[in-house]
Amino acid sequence: MAYFARKIGLLLFALFVAVTLNFFIPRMMPGDPAQDLMDKMQGIPLESLEAIKAAFGVDSTDPLLLQYGKYLLNLIKGDLGISISRFPTPVGRVLQVAVPWTVGLMGTATIISFFLGTIIGIGVAWKRNTKLASFTVGLFIFVRSFPYFWLGLLLIYFLAFRIPIFPLGNAYTPQLERGTLEFFLSVVKHAILPALTIVISSMGAWILTMRNNMINVLAEDYITVAEAKGLPLRRIKTLYAAKNAILPSITGFAMSLGFVVGGGLLTEMVFSYPGVGLMLYQAVQSKDYPLMQAIFLFISVAVLVANFIADIAVLILDPRVRDGGK
């Protein structure tokens, strides 16, 4: 219980720090988002500038601490402000459009990559002296060096342009009616290439991590004792070696799931996928500070919560944590 309470306290403190930094850092950046909007929209009277600043939460007439208090109050209410590039649409509504696409694509691809990489990593560690294991590790070390965007462009060229099996980009066919089977199949077909890009590029890291962890565990004395007792090799491989070797990977997997909400920036740009990554790129281009601020906060919260869940998972799987390391 003390471990759980300590983790809750650290989570709340980290959330407070993330929220505070997320408020002050954008206000230290050069430029005035309200003035930029005024410059883009002709015909707006100058006296409307202060009203627009108030709407964006950057009212120059209020002290900074008062703005911070209003920001915290708005966060509690779920108010993330008004998007500049999509004025006057609220930021929360803008995120509601992009987040499901990113979570669906990046989340699924990350989970597939983790499970495939972990299974292959266990296999190559268990058969580490074979030529197949050496070839597999070398192949994925080579593939891991490919940049996401380069691999995406390669897949687009061969599987969408030269051989038109998959669409060139976007998330679905615009002409189809949402909610129909054809629309669902279109979404799946459009997601295959970007998901394949993410899986191929990231699977090598999981394979290498699991392989190294597994080799270290296989050198432990309790593995030798289990083999000397004549336990089945499958049981030693799964319950003794793999179960302990996977513990360090859980934290990395949780962090990866946390960063899922940030989207694969380059991947979504290459495939014109309407997720959070592409939205963040567009927000930076248009100096949409409220939207950038909301996306950064969303990513921070997701990573912190994912790490907290990983700590709880390790607490359940590792008795040493429950016993205080005794």
TrEMBL record:
Subcellular localization is given as: Cell membrane; Membrane
Q: What Gene3D superfamilies does UniProt report for this protein, alphabetically?
A: MetI-like (1.10.3720.10)
Topological category with respect to the lipid bilayer: Multi-pass membrane protein
Protein name per its UniProtKB record: ABC-type dipeptide/oligopeptide/nickel transport system, permease component
Entry's Gene Ontology BP terms: transmembrane transport
* Pfam families found in the cross-reference section: BPD_transp_1
ABC transmembrane type-1 domain residues: 99-310
Q: Which family does it belong to?
A: Belongs to the binding-protein-dependent transport system permease family.
Q: Which PANTHER family match?
A: OLIGOPEPTIDE TRANSPORT SYSTEM PERMEASE PROTEIN
Q: Which UniProt keywords apply?
A: Membrane, Transmembrane, Transmembrane helix, Transport
Listed GO cellular component terms?
plasma membrane
- Annotated transmembrane regions: 7-25, 98-125, 137-163, 183-208, 245-271, 291-317
Which species expresses this protein natively?
Mesotoga prima MesG1.Ag.4.2
